[in-house]
Structure formats: structure tokens, C-alpha cells
Amino acid sequence: MDILFNPVIVSVVVLCALSLLKLNVLLSMIAATIVAGVAGGISLYGDGTSVMSLLCDGFSVNAQTALAYILLGTFAEAICTTGLAEIITAKLARVIGTKKYVLLAMLTFIAVLSQNLVPVHIAYIPILIPPILALMNKLKIDRRAVACATAFGLEAPYIAIPFGFGLIFQTVIATNLSENGMSVTVMDVTRVNWYLGCAMFIGLLIAVLIVYRKPRVYQTTSIDTQAAMAQVSNLTYKHYVTLAAIVVVMIVQLISHDLSLSSLAGLAVMIAFKAIAWNSIDEQLAGGVKLMGLIAFIMLVAGGYANVIKATGGIDALVYFGTSFMHGSKIIAALVITIIGLLVTMGIGTSFGTVPVLAVLFVPLCQSMGFSVPATIVLISAAAALGDAGSPASDTTLGPTSGLNADGQHSHIWDTCVPTFIVFNSALMIAAVIAAQFI
């Protein structure tokens, strides 16, 4: 197969090109999926092996995630209805004052908590970010810096910290490496993945303190003045119930590792104790779909895209082509592994879903190249995570955009995907290639 017409490469190029031209991400992904199937010789329609059949069959891969996002969006909408978000945000605004970097540090810290200690993932973003856009505008903060800070908090913790989503990711790494002939525990993953976390932190500092340091002017609209105009009032009964619901979500998530179940539990508390009225449940659900529905559908299509490119055999062909250039060099091998991981994750949009695909191909390859177990862990972890920051279909980029674009002044591609791609993927690739040579 001519590498220039490899289904993975062709489809990722199409996805990125259409996204950069500002075509809707969902439509861009569907177009890229069709291109991948046609380039791989799969019929466009017909029986169960056609592109459209494989696309729809693949929805099940991310179906649980999509449901979780809808329910988390509904929970976020319910919290907004009680007014708790505005009160907290207004108080934060008064504490922060004109301290730009304190605000960026706070947003980064909250994003980190959303992955590990309070595992609500990106559901907090449409609750917290829109009300403080007016404050960001006043401080003339470049929202690209905020996107980088938020993306760091959404990705680095699950790579480096074995708690919450981090425990899930590191378990996926350990399980898939073990299933493919390399005995690995979660502790083994934790011991070495901190290299990648540190690299991303350095990338964050470069983005915030150097690249996107200069002031940027935005227009303050009626959409983003809610917190600025809000009066700081005392908490009421509804607010205390809402806080209790948040605690319930945390506890259920820690016990079950299930976002759908935990968000349902939080909603149940708010309904049972009348923080939201029974006759407003439909309104909350509609609001949840509006907040997170597009992201949920993008995740479904991403699962279908992964199913199609697996069926084309394009990933195997890409690996075979890459290995022909290694010539026994560990540096070249590390570069090839990370670049292929970047291409695959850019299309699929999820590092968690990329791990099983990469482990089958790269564990035997790493063993044959003489990479140690820690080096293999770092390479596959980085290969899976590469593209998560920067992919138009990743929740690491979709999440920040959902909050920062509440007033229509933040481009998903140019203000979120491109900055996070450059900053974090460069850091991850350099760290993985260097670390793999010495550990």
C-alpha cells in the first residue's frame, strides 16, 4: 500500500484540513471516516462490512462516555439553575481581583481536581468558565492561555497520577501491555509516567508565561456578564443541597468509576430534596443536551472512526512502513512510535481508546528493539496521549472550547486545538524520546 494513500494518514489530513477550514467538527469527522474507508477499499454502503455499517457499529465503543457527558451536562445545568455557580464565581472574582496569574493557576488547579480528586471531567467547565469571561476580559487574558491551562489539567493528571481518571488510564496501560506479553503493574506505570507529566508542566509554563503572555482584547457581551453583575449573597437551602449533591457525585464516582451513575446520583439528590423542581426536569435535560450533546455525538463518531480505520488495515501498514526506517536505532524507533500514536489519536480523539490499538503493535516491536519495560511504558503512554491535546475530536479540547466560546469569541480550532497541539504534543514527544533512551 502506497504510504501516501494510507487510510490513517489520508483521513487525518482530511480531518485536520476541514477543521482548520472551520467546518463543524462532527461533519469533519464523518467526512474523514468516509475517506478512510474508501481509501482502505471498503464499500461505502451495503452489508455489515460497509463504511456506514462499521461507523455505526463503532458507536458502542464510546456509548457509555457519550451517555455520561449528557448526564453530566444535565447535572451542570441543574447546578446553574440553583445559582450556586454564580455565587461562587462572584466570590472568586472578588478574591482574585486583578491577579491574572492567580486566576490561571486557579483554573489549572480546578482542572487537575476534575480528573483526580473530584472526577467530574469536563462537566465543570460550562458551569465555571462562562460566568468569569467578563473578569478575563477585564484582565485582558489571552484565552489561548486559559485553553492551555485547562487542557493541561485535563490531560497531565491522568497520565501521571494514579487516582480517579489517572487510575483508569494507568490500569488500561498496564493491562494491555501485560496482555501483549510484557508483565506490567499500575505502580510500574506510575513510576515512569511522571516524566511526561513534568514535560507537560514545562510546556504549560512556556505557554502561559511566554507564548500567550501578552494582553488580548475581547468584547464583553450580555452573555458573559452574569458573574460580574451577580451580588455575593448567602447560601440558601438549595445551595446546600447542591453542595451535598456534588459530594455524592464524588463519592459514587470514587466507588463505581462510572460517570453516568455518579451524575445520576447527584441529580437524584437534587430532585429528591427539591433543589430543582420536578416539573423543570425536562428543562434541565434539554439544557444538558445543549451543553454537552455535540461533544457526546462527536465521541460516538470517534468510536466509529476508530472502527473503520482498524478495518482498513491502515494502522498495521503504517507501523510496517515506519519499522523499515528504524535500522536498529532506538531514537528513530521512539520517534516512529510516537508519530504513529499522534496520527492515530488525532483521528480517534481519545488516548484511552488508542492504548489497545497501539499495545498490540508496539509491545513486540519495543521488545525486539531492546527497549526496557519502563521505556516501553513511557513510549506507549506518550503515543496514546499525543494528539489528545490538539485533536478536534478530543474532550481535552472540546471541553475548554465549550466554556471559552460561550460568547462566540473563541475558535475551537485556532484558539484551542492549535495552541494545545503545539505546546503539549511537542513536550510529550521530546520527553518520551529522550526518556526511552535512558530508563
From TrEMBL:
Q: Does the keyword Metal-binding apply?
A: no
User: What keywords are assigned to this protein?
Assistant: Cell membrane, Membrane, Transmembrane, Transmembrane helix
Q: Which domain of life is it from?
A: Bacteria
Localization, UniProt: Cell membrane
Topology in the lipid bilayer: Multi-pass membrane protein
Q: Where is the Na+/H+ antiporter NhaC-like C-terminal domain?
A: 151-433
* Name of the protein described by the UniProt record: Na+/H+ antiporter family protein
